[in-house]
Amino acid sequence: MLLLDILLITIGLLYILFLYSDIFDIKMVVSSSALKYISVVLCFIITLFIGKDGFGKRDRLLLQIGLFIAILADLCLLILGYHVLGIALFCLVQIIYYNRYRGGKACRPPLIFIKFIVIFLLTLAGYFIINLVSVKVDFLFAMAFFYSVCLIFSTLESVNASKNKLYPCYNKYMIIVGMALFLLSDIAIAIFNMSKEFNTCMYNISASLIWGLYLPSQVLLSVSGYRFKRDKKDV
Question: pTM for the whole thing?
Fold first, then answer.
């Protein structure tokens, strides 16, 4: 897996560079945002070389689709500034991961999507009711709420996947830790947005934590699609 090693080393170097740039406010030839985006694209590229070293076509495709949509979401949020669209795409990412962690046994994909559609419609109804009877709320908050529900569902399902032994030892911990970091990164985003006008220290710390947690989560999830030699018999 020489190529995998090269990609991981490259991502590690980019990680150090953009964290250094963010923490010490250093301007570089290539912007911090560009380095971040390149790093998540490399995470997606990692999944393209899984091939026969994975856990079957279904698991590989769901992981690849999830990471591909994630880089589209990051493009919207990080580069283009389309926040509502970016969050909507991340909702889809979490629904795909939720489907991946179920292993296709307990619930068919169409029923899974119907469940999330119902949750989204309830969220939408709540948003309109609040805007009619109370204060005006930005639609971004409704999307953020729905995303948080999707994220919690997929994170809990990753734990269930481990309990049900759907993945070998290394992979199940990569998935659980990856999803936990994903969750913590989004908590950091919430703290970052809430502390903009109140706490400069919390604002700066959370700003660094967002990508400090997010990129490792993407690396772990991308590598979780590989079946390692020591785990060949560990089902």
Answer: 0.91
